[in-house]
Amino acid sequence: MALFDVELTDESKEYKAIDEFLHEAFYDVEIIDESGQWSVYTETSFQEAADLIRKKFPHLTEDQLLIKNLE
Question: Which CA distances in Å does 12 have to 18, 19, 27, 68, 71?
């Protein structure tokens, strides 16, 4: 199980796609900031979740899409 934050740091043109993906893929997603910050809880490991997000959005660098483990 993992608890982590996802933050979109560049322009929010990817916001809707990321928001929809997170809500479909993970157990519990809370929107922290409408401009692009989410708190996510998943029953998989943090690394598995981060890999899944990176595979879905490979065009975003680690600076543009921050994934922070909260555990």
Answer: 10, 11, 23, 19, 27
Which two structure tokens, joined as six digits, stand for 41? Answer: 């809880």
CB contact at 8 A, 5 and 37:
yes
Nearest C-alpha neighbor of 2 from the set 52, 51, 44: 44
Q: In a 10 Å sphere around its CB, with 0-12 CB exposed, 13-18 middle and 19+ buried, how is residue 53 labelled?
A: buried
Strand order from edge to edge, sheet including 28-33:
28-33, 37-42, 2-8, 65-69
pTM as predicted: 0.88
* 30-65 pLDDT tens trace: 989 888 899 999 999 999 999 999 999 999 999 999
d(CA 60, CA 57): 6
